[in-house]
Design goal:
polysaccharide degradation, disordered N terminus, glycosidase, Immunoglobulin-like, eight-stranded parallel β-sheet, beta-glucosidase, alpha+beta, 46 strands, eight-stranded antiparallel β-sheet, glycoprotein, binds 2-acetamido-2-deoxy-beta-D-glucopyranose
């Protein structure tokens, strides 16, 4: 990244001498002249060329740039970087400080790569094809590239009925529709997470799957854009981008294993961060806990209902006048809040509070976070560059930290140290960051944020009286670069992306696109990075509080690469069945493609009122979200799991399953962190040759081998789900279940159960039983479940460490393999788990065994039981889990 100058020149109005038209007919764009190739140089792994406008400019949304520079680099054997820039200007590029670029392997050349770049010289068009088969994966043939100051267009042909996944964040189907589809990239506060709309985060990556292989295409660009997929005149995918440069990474993926595409994408944006073990426990939250007693009572009620609550959360209710880094002295007095945190910690439970980016604009002085930020000069500035940009958010008129200022991290870290000080403040265990699109309630044009704040009654008045400040706790007294935008119209580029915010203006209900950053960048280019930059700064601030320990930071807005630092929730959904269903595509997108695996939707739904049966079903589905949190809006009826008997029972049942699987999913997160192997899998990742799996987004694999098939219709006690031709086992009865490669109807599924199956071929390290906290869980013995595939084989692994350290002093890695009736357990047991393997259960054993041996010694018959109906052979061991062993049955 070249150094950036300080501030932008005043923006000039678009030159009136140019005549532009608005083109919507794709044929018009295809009639543009495109470019012809000159000065082609190839050396080793790179190809460079000049692209010169090939005819009369078509100036669709601005004037065509006359000459471009093409740079193609074979970065690895599976990755080609194709970059097209305007050498005559300093156009914006996503800063390396936000998305560091991956290293290239210098030994790679075009002759070793699995995918190749090919081009036609005039008009310039390029394609990417598989070297082995010459199959074309991406081709701009007959769709000229258009490159203008505020409009870039690249269009590729696709096969008919293309299977395209990604291009999120969205609530569309996991496999994107190919007819008349526009995916818009522009972060917005998208209440209700509507389908077909731009949402909070932006991940301009797609995977395309064919029966011949899976590949990936990543456009590293943070400007607003529409990606259009259509199949009316042949199928195609078209990028329409309103700034920046064309910076493509093509990933070969694999012809056999779709997961390779995910691993290769992790090489660019980073593999996901590991999270603390405890963060896989149940989280409870709501907007609208009125005071500290409400919070305390919820904690006590979970315990009374025997539902394991690991982490309690509090939304903005705790703040004084909705100002971050404050507590309301009447409703949430600091001393009483500290008592709650102490109580939680002494019970091995945890606490998380919300922090928003917007800071109350209180120039009168006295509000430290504003005063210190002003002193440090770290606010996002208005277009005039002399005063902070003002919005209207929860506390009224606000300023916004500029994450590009090199003093903002210190500021943010210091605010976290002060307010979340374990000695004198609130010792939170994780951070929750919201409203970071950034959201403002002010419609564009936001001429008077003061009036707007007043009209909206910001901050909102309290709706209840303060509680007794000395009320007893429910648990009694127990102690526990300079960028050139001259000539551009930032507010109203001629190509208008389909932003769904209010009027559709880019600046609607967010920071203005002409707001300025410290390093000379403008919000027009960096808008989509705001949430991800706040994420990194918050991760760093939390790390400074507890050096060396993994952080749990849950954000709303993300950009490509966010998962390397933080997790996310899917935003403000509704308590309805559509949102219950589309949450699966949402978590699959984040976990299996975008590499933000610590993800979940608000269980039982955020806005509007849930129902007993929806909440019961959602508690059970939500137990298979990596991040499991019940969260609710301020005006909705309460929905803590203990409030209805059915929901409480559903939660107890499924939390038992989730907790037993916790080391399995913890191991999956470790693997993801090591090499980008996803922690959730759509069915087609596991059955890439079975076209029936390609559209499925109401079932998914939790980890590699746990198939979750929730009931998806209201009032229904059955589900029609697809079972590939493979061997499965019911998770509860452990009985075999043959998939036939067809839809099968599972019936009699009451409101306290959910169909869960083990994919044949797995050895699962399960805890013996669920517990009330993850700390207790870690003291519970393991059992191994051996679930063979059709050829009688199975394998698996376990990773264990202290559960909290970024670089643990010791760790344990165990591998399990099973064939010919013998289970072999081997590994390095550096971390002492201090528990036993209590038993091994072999599934699909068709007849009673004659002998069972452990480490070659015959096991006493009293330690063996065999159930003919379920075909389960159960061998009691009670062997310390600190070395390898074998168990053999015949
Ligand atoms: C192009 O779009 C702008 C903004 O929507 C509009 O004002 C103008 O009339 C349109 N021009 C044509 C030729 O359609
Ligand atoms: C490269 O593109 C040219 C022009 O489209 C085509 O004739 C040629 O077959 C392509 N080469 C490969 C290896 O696909
Ligand atoms: C395409 O989608 C747009 C936006 O949703 C809609 O207005 C339009 O009617 C659709 N066109 C067709 C041909 O379906
Ligand atoms: C898809 O094609 C149809 C028919 O040409 C057109 O009406 C529609 O606008 C196109 N949709 C998109 C998203 O490009
Ligand atoms: C921080 O930014 C300022 C202004 O952009 C610059 O003068 C200063 O050298 C930077 N400091 C560091 C430590 O990078
Ligand atoms: C939710 O229930 C409450 C209490 O019964 C009611 O006041 C509110 O209007 C309901 N909300 C919706 C969106 O139906
Ligand atoms: C489910 O049952 C409730 C209560 O009988 C009823 O109000 C609702 O309409 C039913 N929903 C569906 C989708 O049938
Ligand atoms: C399974 O059922 C779904 C939903 O009805 C349907 O779309 C799909 O085509 C069916 N799959 C097979 C293999 O029959
Ligand atoms: C619900 O179904 C499960 C699994 O079949 C069964 O164990 C449980 O007893 C049932 N619960 C009720 C209340 O019928």
């Amino acid at each position: 990244m070249r150094p950036l100058g300080r501030r932008l020149a005043t923006l000039a109005v678009l030159s009136a001498s140019l005549v532009f038209a608005n083109y919507t007919d794709p044929n018009v764009l295809d009639a543009c002249p495109g470019y012809k190739t000159t000065n082609v140089h190839t050396s080793g792994s790179t190809l460079t060329a000049d692209l010169v406008l090939a005819g009369e400019a078509c100036n669709v949304y601005g004037s065509d740039i006359e000459q471009l520079k093409l740079e193609v680099t074979y970065e690895t054997n599976t990755r080609i970087h194709v970059k097209i820039t305007d050498p005559s200007s300093d156009r914006y590029e996503v800063p390396e400080s936000v998305v560091p670029r991956p290293d290239a392997d210098p030994s790679v050349s075009s002759s070793t790569a699995e995918i190749r770049f090919n081009y036609t010289a005039s008009p310039f068009a390029f394609s990417i094809y598989r070297a082995a088969t010459h199959e074309v994966l991406f081709s701009t043939a007959s769709h000229p590239i258009i490159f203008e100051p505020q409009y870039l267009r690249v269009k590729t042909n696709l096969p008919d009925n293309a299977n395209i996944y990604g291009l999120g964040e969205h609530t569309d189907s996991f496999r994107l529709p190919t007819f008349n589809t526009t995916r818009t990239f522009w972060s917005r506060d998208a209440y209700g997470v509507p389908t077909g709309s731009n949402l909070y985060g932006n991940h301009p990556i797609y995977f395309e799957h064919r029966t011949t292989g899976t590949h990936g295409v990543f456009l590293l660009n943070s400007n607003g854009m529409d990606v259009k997929i259509n199949d009316t005149a042949g199928t195609s995918l078209e990028y329409n981008v309103i700034g920046g440069v064309l910076d493509f990474y093509f990933l070969a993926g694999s012809t056999t294993d779709p997961v390779e595409a995910a691993r290769q994408y992790a090489e660019i944006v980073g593999a996901p961060a590991e999270v603390p073990y405890w963060s896989f426990g149940l989280h409870q939250c709501r907007f609208g806990y009125q005071n500290y007693l409400d919070v305390a009572n919820v904690i006590a009620n979970y315990s009374k209902a025997d539902i394991p609550l690991e982490t309690m959360w509090t939304d903005i209710d705790y703040m004084y006048k909705r100002r971050i880094f404050t507590v309301d002295p009447d409703y949430f007095p600091l001393a009483r809040m500290r008592e709650i945190v102490d109580y939680l910690h002494s019970n091995d439970q945890h606490y998380v509070l919300m922090t928003d980016p917007a800071i109350a604009y209180l120039p009168g002085g006295g509000y430290g976070p504003f005063d210190r930020g002003t002193q440090a000069d770290i606010w996002l500035m208005a277009a005039n560059d002399s005063s902070p940009f003002l919005g209207a958010v929860w506390p009224g008129v606000t300023v916004f930290p500029d994450w590009f200022s090199n003093k903002t991290q210190d500021y943010w870290t210091n605010e976290f140290q002060l307010f979340y000080d374990p000695q004198s403040g609130l010792d939170i265990d994780g951070a929750w960051i919201d409203m970071n699109e950034p959201s403002s309630f002010c419609n564009y044009p936001c001429t008077d944020p003061f009036e707007q704040a007043q009209e909206q009654d910001l901050p909102p008045a309290r709706t209840s009286s303060p509680p007794d400040p000395n009320a007893p706790m429910p648990w009694g007294s127990q102690k526990r670069k300079r960028v050139d935008h001259s000539g551009d119209d930032l507010q109203n580029p001629l190509y208008a992306i389909q932003n769904d915010a209010g009027s559709g203006a880019l600046s609607d209900r967010t920071a203005y696109v002409d707001a300025k950053h410290a390093n000379g960048l403008v919000e027009y280019d960096t808008h989509n990075l705001y949430g991800t930059m706040m994420s990194t700064a918050t991760h760093n601030a939390m790390l400074a509080r507890r050096p060396g320990l993994r952080t749990l930071v849950i954000t709303r807005s993300t950009f490509a690469g966010a998962g390397a630092h933080v997790g996310k929730w899917l935003g403000d959904n509704f308590s309805d069945w559509d949102h219950y269903r589309n949450s699966i595509a949402g978590i699959l997108g984040m976990a299996s493609i975008f590499h933000v695996p610590m993800v979940g939707a608000d269980i039982c739904g955020y806005a509007e009122n849930t129902t007993e049966t929806l909440c019961a079903r959602w508690a059970m589905l939500g137990a298979f979200y990596p991040f499991m949190r019940n969260h609710n809006a301020d005006t909705s009826i309460s929905q803590e799991f203990y409030l209805w008997p059915t929901v409480a029972q559903a939660a107890r049942n499924v939390l038992d399953i989730r907790y037993r699987l916790m080391d399995y999913i913890y191991t999956a997160f470790h693997q993801a962190h090591e090499d980008g192997t996803p922690v959730l899998n759509p069915l087609w990742y596991k059955y890439p040759e079975d076209p029936a799996t390609f559209p499925i987004d109401l079932q998914f694999f939790f980890g590699d081998s746990i198939l979750v098939s929730p009931v998806t219709e209201e009032n229904s006690t059955s589900v029609t789900a697809y079972f590939p031709k493979d061997t499965f086992y019911d998770f509860l009865t452990l009985a075999p279940f043959e998939g036939t490669g067809a839809n099968m109807t599972l019936s009699g599924i009451n409101f306290t159960s959910i169909p869960v199956h083990i994919k044949g071929g797995a050895v699962l390290p399960l805890r013996e039983k669920g517990t009330m906290t993850t700390t207790q869980l870690r003291e519970t013995d393991f059992e191994l479940v051996v679930a063979p595939d059709a050829s009688g084989e199975a394998s698996g692994s376990l990773y264990a460490d202290d559960g909290v350290s970024i670089t643990p002093a010791t760790s344990t890695s165990v591998s399990f393999s099973y064939q010919n009736g013998t289970l072999a357990v081997a590994g390095e047991f550096g971390y002492s788990m201090g528990v036993n393997v209590s038993r091994v259960r072999f599934l699909g054993v068709v007849s009673a065994p004659t002998t069972v041996k452990a480490n070659g010694q015959t096991v006493q018959s009293g330690a063996i039981s065999y159930d003919k109906d379920s075909q389960v052979l159960d061998v009691t061991l009670d062997t310390p889990f600190n070395e390898g062993f074998t168990v053999q049955h015949s």
